[in-house]
Design goal:
Blueprint: H1 5-15, H2 18-21, E1 26-30, E2 34-39, H3 54-73, E3 79-88, E4 97-106, E5 110-119, E6 125-135
Antiparallel strand pairs: 1-2, 2-4, 3-6, 4-5, 5-6
């Protein structure tokens, strides 16, 4: 049974630090091996020049991976980031960002994901990330 976006939103509320919740992330969709989150545009998250900050985008990619792993496992389990690499390709200004995390491998103790971050208005790719997680529970 696939997790619903509402169930995934409850994972965000229950398991993430207040500063992550302040990003305003919402779960748009979940599947057996993926999650799509929305990072709403906010001037609070913009850097000089008006583009969303890289730190906010990286936190969103990291968070989307946790939701994708949780969806694949049928619920939240404790996990921790082992590695994250992000390549920024264009600035996003004045638009929400859609973050899609797709699991490329899910083992008993390790999970690997590729993440795309796109301008929700134009669909243009803003960044790509890859993550590796250790599953603790």
């Amino acid at each position: 049974m696939t997790m619903t976006p509402a169930e995934a939103d409850k994972i965000l509320i229950a398991h993430f630090a207040p500063w992550v919740l302040d990003l305003g992330l919402t779960v748009e969709a979940v599947g057996e091996d993926r999650a799509v989150l929305r990072l709403p545009w906010s001037e609070r998250l913009a850097r000089e020049g008006g583009g969303l900050s890289g730190q906010a985008l990286m936190a969103a990619a990291d968070t989307a991976t946790v939701i994708a792993v949780s969806a694949a496992r049928g619920g939240f389990v404790p996990m921790t980031t082992v590695q994250q690499s992000t390549s920024f390709q264009r600035a996003v200004s004045g638009a929400d960002v859609l973050i899609e995390a797709v699991l490329t491998k899910l083992g008993r103790r390790m999970a690997f994901a590729d993440i795309t971050l796109s301008d929700a208005g134009s669909g243009a790719l803003a960044a790509r990330a890859s993550t590796v997680y250790t599953i603790l529970g």
